[in-house]
Each structure stands twice: as C-alpha cells, then as structure tokens.
Amino acid sequence: MKTSIIALAATLAFTSPAAAQTEDTPSWTRDIVVTGEREGYAVPTSSTATRTDTPLIEVPQSVQVVTRSLVQEQDRRTLGDALVNVSGVTPTRSEENLFIPPILRGFPGEVYLDGLPIFAGNQQAYDPSSLIGVERIEVLKGPSATLYGGGLGTPLGGIINVVTERPSDKTGGYVAMRAGSFSTWNPYGDINVALTSGISARVAGEYQSNKSWIDKVGGKRWSIQPSLSFQIDADTDLLVQGQFNRRRQLEYSGLPADAALAGTLDRDAFPGSPIGQPRTRNDNNMGTATLRHAFSDRVKLTVTGRDYDSDVDESGSFVYPGLAGTGTVAPNYDVFPITMVNGTKEATIDANLAVKAEMLGGAHTLLVGANYDWTSFYSAMGLFVSDSPSGTINLSNPAYDLRYTPQTPVNSYTDDRFETFAVYAQDQATYGRLHLTGGLRVTSLKFIENSNIGVANDKTYTHVSPRIGATFDVVPGIALFAGYATAFRAPFGFIGTQAAKPETSSNIEGGVKLALPKVGLSGTIAAFRQTHDNVVTADPANVGFYVQSGRQRASGLEVDLVWEPTPAFSLLANYAYTNTRDDGVAPGDTLARVPKDSGRVAARYRVLNGPAKGLSFGAGITAFASRELTLPNSIAVPGYAVIDVQTSYDLGRISLGVSVVNLGGRKAWDPHSYMGYPVVSPNQPRSAFVTLKARI
C-alpha cells in the first residue's frame, strides 16, 4: 500500500525524563518530515495529559488517543462517531449537542481544541462536527483540573481534546468527494503549501448537505480552517489558525420514550410543526495564535491565545405529554413551539514555561504556567407564550400539517459573565523505573449571572485543585500506575429557588499500561472510582428549574487495547464496565444515559504486496447495554449492537473507498435529550457511502 507523506510540525521539546539522560534532544521548533510507514492506531506519546510530550506509559492517568488514520479508515465523520473507539465514553449525536455534552465515566466531559477551552457547560454550543483538519483526538478520563480550566472552572468528568493539523514545509494535500445514503453530498479537502522558506500555509475545509432517516430532518454544514506557520528562527515559531463553522438543520426533539419503545409510533416521525419552522443555526468562529520559543534544549516557553464567538439561533417544536393539561392520549400529542437564542464570546490565554533539570537524585520536567479566561454568555428562550400548543400530531401516522409559530419576544433570559485567573505548577520526576507526577492549580473564578427567573448567582470562587500519581516500570513496556485528581466548576445555567454551590469531583484510578512495540501491543487497563458533589439535576417538581441533588458516584473497569503486529493488520478492542449510583434525588438509581457494559472491536487488513496491493478491508462491532433515560429511573432504552464495514483501494494518487453503517440493519433506539422529558431517537439504519479521493 502506497503511503502519503506525513508532515509533522514536531514538538520535540520533551522526551521522557529517562530518555533525556541518554540522548540530546533536538530543537522542538524544527519541522520533521516522516515518509514510509503509515500512521498506526496507537501512538507512544501525548502532550494533552501533561502539556509536555510524555510517553503514555509514564502518565498516571487513563489517556486514549484516536488517530487520524483510524478516523479516515473507519470513515468517521463526527466527533461522536469517532469516540465509540474509546471505552467509557457515551457520545453525543450532533443534533442534540446543544443540550448535553459527551459523557466520560458517567459524568459530563468537555470539548477542548488544541488545549484551550471552547466555552463548555451542560450544553455545548461548539460541536466540531467536521473532523477535516483534525490530527487526532485525545481523551483524558476523570478530573483534569491541574492544567486546564476556562469559563466555568475546571473539567469535572474529563477532557476531549481535539488536536488540529499544523502546516508543514511540504506542498501537497488532497481533494475528495463523499456521497451516499440520504442524499448525502460531501466535498472536502486539505491543502498544504510551502510559501517561502520558513513560512507555510494550510487550508482544510468541507461542505455537506444531507437528508435524514427521520422525516423532514435534513441539514447543511460547512467548515473552513486556514492556518499559517512562521519559523522565525531555529528556536522560535509562530502558528496562526482560524476556524469558521456553520451548521443548519431542522431541529429534532425526539419521540416520547414510553410509546416509542412499545412500538406504537412511527419510528421515523418528526414530532413537531415543520411548516415554517426555520432550521436551527449554529455558527462559531475562532482565531488562535501559538508562540513557542526554546531558550535552550532544557527551557521552553509556550504561549497560546484564542478569541472565540458563537451564535446559536434555535427554532424547535416538541411534544411533552400533559404540559398544557389538555389530556391528549398517545399516539396523539400536543406540539409546543420554542425559540432559543444563545450568544457566546470567549477570550483565553495560557502561558507556560517548561524546564528540564537534574536534581534531588532524579530527572525532572518542571512546568509552571498561568491562565486567563473571560467569557460572556447570553441565552434567551421563548416557550409557548400563549400557554397553548400549536395543535396535535398523530405520531403513529403523522400528517405534518402544523405550522410553527415563533415564540417572540422571549420570556426568559440569562446574561452571564465568567472571569477566571489561575496559576499552576507540575513536576514530572523519574527515579529509575519510578515516574512521579504531581501538580497543583489555584483558580479564582468570578461568576456573575443575571436572569429574570430563579435566584441569580453572583460570587467569586477560589479553589485549589491537586493532582498526584505514579507509574512503575515492571519490565520494559509494562507499567503499573495510580493517580488521584480533583476539580471544581461553577454551576452553569442553574435556574433554581436557591443559590447554587460550586460542583466538585474527585477521582482515584489505577491499573496497567502496555507499550510493547516488538509485538505491536499497547493500551491501558484501568479501575477507577469517581465522585461528583453538588450535582445539578432537573427539578422534577418544576419544569425548567434545577436542584443540586448531592453526590453521584461512578466506579468500574476499562480496557483499551491496540494490536498491530505488522503494518498490514490493526486490531482495536475496548470494553467498559461502569457502575453508577445517585445518592441525591434518587438514592441507589443509575445515572441517565450511561450503559453498565459497553465495548467495541474493530479490525483492518491491508494488502501491501502483490497484484492486490493497495486493497484494504475493515469491520467493527459496537455494543451498548441498556441505558436509563431519567433520574429517578423510570424507563430505559434496551441495549443493542451494530456492525460497520469499510473497504478501500489505493492506487497511489487516487483512492476509492466504500463504507457501510449498521450492516445488519438493526433497528434500535438511542437516548435523546430535549427539555427534560424522556425521549428517544431511532438509530441510523443501514447506510452506504462512497468516497473518491485525489492526492495532489
């Protein structure tokens, strides 16, 4: 199989502390071009967990990396699609991302981009639905407060860090067209140009239009991601990046779970008033600049800043039995219109200095840094102002004759300001086979909420977030690890009858890490126990209001393994046992949306020699156990498994690929989130897509 040139803007500042004792490290700002072997599914190092380039086997935390090669070979098109390759993650579908984020180990995760926050709370206005221009996705499980934080504080459940590609000094790239089921048309491309010596430009982008297996639902989206890199001198470089994302889609609110699971509804029905309902608009823009300077091979400075703004204009319609007291009976439901407007502006900067030193009998990598984040968030909602529904729809045999009525002016709003200043320090120390990591972050968060409903929250929080962990090399390539970390966050969008307290979390974990290149085996086996205090949940007695329920817990076992004995074959396997428990509003009940058992197995075989050289085949199976929809538990979605397959033929500059989703045509339901009522959405039926790619 011919391989394209893999251009890496290398960050070679940090080998492991142990390696630093035996070899000289080149300047981190020089571009390295790697040719030959294709990128694999496993990577040996990560910078997300420690902000230094550290071997994963030395990181005392479960960190999983989804590589660009895996994303492309599996034809993954959204972040949610890609995250099924990581254990313990409950992905969010793009059409519901405005209401709920991905879940890690039972608790909400947060999406970061290149190590900086994109305003994230219980809702995610930023959805990287395009994976064009993404180098890899790194998932840090559990609290990650020591090095990260933003508008609301520090991540409680974990971080999903989307790492984008950097320009290289080699001109090249590709253009492609993907088409298939549901009238999907998806042109995309990624072009890199070396402008002059030391200056390179890259532009990645895509456009997609599609219909849906759900009636009336369809959409369009596009993304453009330009970037420029400047090699100022041998020790200094500057990277400037932009990203402009647009998405338009008729908002889908889900089907009532009780009737849908009983089989009395049309599974593809649109539960609303589509006549005149505008498509929900989600626009976000950002600019990022990163300056790196090496004072020496042992002292490195990194300064990164970003300006981000997002506008979301939602027009929705939904069913909520009994909300208007009209007493409709399934399959006939009242339909309510809703209008929501969100606007976010965020400016954030992070600066850190890393120093490698020999002291106290060991090799140390010291990191000290500071972070500032200013966020402005405005949200307004108009909800059935007339206190009456638009009409009634029969979801067993929908006629779609209801007209949408915009709910303006809005009748509730919140206008918030969050200002964060934090300082942090970290030490990574190596004493022979023992690798220690310790860190501390002090955060001051000024939290101002103005709202016309509920009790406003106007307070400054100061919090100390520690982290400590160790790994021990049992034999080369096999290590034991253990770690402890905490985090805190101000309660975002809390509307209640009492002022809210900050949410906190803590996590302890341990297990085994593998990095055995001779046999091609790598991965992590981890056991964990995590708690989340002052949890914000929907108030069952007041629609649209929240309460802080007390404590929630999650514990379990996770396995993430990659086996690549030869370049021709890759096998990925993951499994998660996640036992969750609520100790607040529903003591003993399981947390919503989190399966107790979940996993995936995926394999890829590539023909590297002979007449069929360039041909490859892949297949995978993903499975979930049942998932509760509500807390307290009242109804659950049954578990299911689906099969995906892919094949491609690489002719060098031209390649052709085919992928099939849900090969067996399994009909099942997924949890959905909309306005607090238990709803579900149908899983994607059997779908096929063809991709033609031309390399430049």
Automatic annotation (TrEMBL):
Domain TonB-dependent receptor-like beta-barrel span(s) in chain numbering: 242-663
PROSITE patterns, alphabetized:
TONB_DEPENDENT_REC_3
How is this protein situated with respect to the membrane?
Multi-pass membrane protein
Question: Which SUPFAM superfamilies does this one have?
Answer: Porins
Which InterPro entries does the UniProt record give?
Answer: Beta-barrel_TonB (IPR000531), Beta-barrel_TonB_sf (IPR036942), Plug_dom (IPR012910), Plug_dom_sf (IPR037066), TonB-dep_rcpt-like (IPR039426), TonB_sidphr_rcpt (IPR010105)
Keyword Lipid metabolism part of the UniProt annotation? no
Q: What is its main location?
A: membrane
Membrane-crossing segments per the record: none
Signal peptide stretch: 1-20
Record's keyword terms, sorted: Cell outer membrane, Ion transport, Iron, Iron transport, Membrane, Receptor, Signal, TonB box, Transmembrane, Transmembrane beta strand, Transport
What NCBIfam families has UniProt attached to this entry?
TonB-siderophor (TIGR01783)
What's the protein name? TonB-dependent receptor
Subcellular location, in the record's words? Cell outer membrane
Residue ranges of the TonB-dependent receptor plug domain? Answer: 56-151
The UniProt similarity line reads: Belongs to the TonB-dependent receptor family.
Q: Which Gene3D superfamilies match?
A: TonB-dependent receptor, beta-barrel domain (2.40.170.20), TonB-dependent receptor, plug domain (2.170.130.10)
